[in-house]
Amino acid sequence: MKNKIKIIDAKNIYFEKIIYQLKERTKKGYSRAIDLFIKFALEHRNKYLDDVSIEEVRTFLNELATSTSKQYANKVYSIVKSFYQKLSDYNYYQGIIPFKPYMLFKLEKKVKYYLQDNEIQRIINLYNRKIERSKDPFPYLRNKVIFLILLTSGLRCNECLNLKINDVDLKNKTILIRNTKTYKERLVPINQNILEEIKKYLEIRSLNNKWDTDSLFFSDKNKIYKYDSFRRSLYRIAIKLKVNKNHKLFPHNLRHKFASDWIKYNSNMFKLKVILGHSSIKTTEIYVNISDADICEENKNGKIKNVSKYKY
Fold first, then answer.
1. Superfamily assignment of 117-301 in CATH?
2. Distance between CA atoms of 101 and 302, rounded to whole angstroms?
3. Cα–Cα distance for residue pair 189/198, rounded to 1 Å
């Protein structure tokens, strides 16, 4: 007789022995999704993993899609299916996996928002005004440099915020990314114009480094400048400048903009995959946005001008 595993025990095993190396933020997202499933299962008197039937999974996903969204239900589907699959792969579970492909909801393809060049220039201009007029220009110059690094190098925001001062090689014009989502170090090039902005920042940084930290970026209140702090600063900028119709701007929008511009000007998907730190080219393809207008312009003019088009 096969060993039965309680759902609660399965979650503990999954987090403590299988995905313990993942980032805390990722694990929190997984935990929320799995907890929703566990709550549903226990309410339906399913104490063990293999007690949950295929029909019950369909009911769970349908209810979740109604109370949240189809998109989120699909996300939970992927997380909990992987939860089952990994437990099976590691021989903690020998039952069926009740999550089937046909359970995924079909989603309407929405046109993704990509930052426009004129919006980017307006944001840079706003940073410059703040730096010039403020008695304490440090936070504005710091945020400007973070913004420019994300825009021109394709780093994930947390990769940028976790940089150490020695990770920036001014001589060879590269940034070494150590703390990555895939746990693989990589080098990315720095635009010469951005290099000059980093040098300006380093001068002011040395005057504000109260804690003698080796972190490239830090806040006024603690040693670490956190993702949410930078995200909120972008949110305020988006509202002030009325960026996109929803007045929303996230750090990841800058990574998407970099990827689209890279393909537009360089047309090499495989190099882009390495720069973005993706393990699969399929992930890279999601980031790319080439409009009909871009294609027409390239066909008309040949190679499009270099990506260095902003005044810093």
1. Intergrase catalytic core (1.10.443.10)
2. 43
3. 13
